[in-house]
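Table S2 (text version). Query chain:
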Amino acid sequence: MSANITIVGLGLIGGSLARSLRLNGFSGRITGVESNPHHRTIAMYRGLADEFLSLDEAVEKSDIIILCAPVDINCRLLPGILDMIGGTSKVVTDMGSTKADIASVAEKHHARGRYVSAHPMAGTENSGPAAALDRLFENKVAIICDAEQSDDDAMELITALLQSLSMRIQYMNSREHDVHVAYVSHISHITSFALALCVLAKEKDSRNIMSLAAGGFESTVRLSKSKAETWAPIFAGNSGPIIEVIDTYIEKMRLFRTHIKNGDSDALRELMVTANEIGNILK
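Corresponding structure-token output:
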């Protein structure tokens, strides 16, 4: 694939995107837009972009603009970018993990067709350009939302870009997407943050945490290392579906509490056998 690409935000997603594009034979120019001076220095050191420019300069020189900043920043930047690229063949996409808010920002804009809403289902608990990985997106799913609102040529361009990273494409509307990710992604982070807070509140001696933490705790709490700057806007922006899933989660926790309090091994076993069925889906 050959085009001039701007990546706005060279953190885990944006930096991994740059590395993955190069690894998969991308021959165009990559321009970085990064407002964090520390991140920009690391991104420059790691060679994540050919040059770093202001947003306006980068949009002027690029065929594709990819928003990889936190979701609230993506929402703020998108209308101005659409103003700049309306009436051109340029395309803007975003990699944010919630879609309803940015869909509402874009839907009435006269250049809405130049925007493609995308979400690569990939990530780690780490953040920043130092966390960028070569093959983060390989064999992962990329969800494209509200495809019917994007121009055909814009869809073709972004689909080709995602497929060049060996991603599989699925389609959803933005609100359906936000409900699904609340259940399969956002609740995992919330419960990890909550578990970390629970342990920190009860275990005042960090040596006890270090010495007693086994694999189960470590894997469950891993996501609590995720950056607040990234996840706070996601939780706030997807509050409706997330509140629904939190209520469901609390209901299941109360079931466990009741059966544990009553010493009901049979009821506990039934709950866990039912939960084991998730293995048939994830294998």
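Notes on Table S2: The chain has 13 helices and eight strands. The first helix runs from residue 12 to 23.
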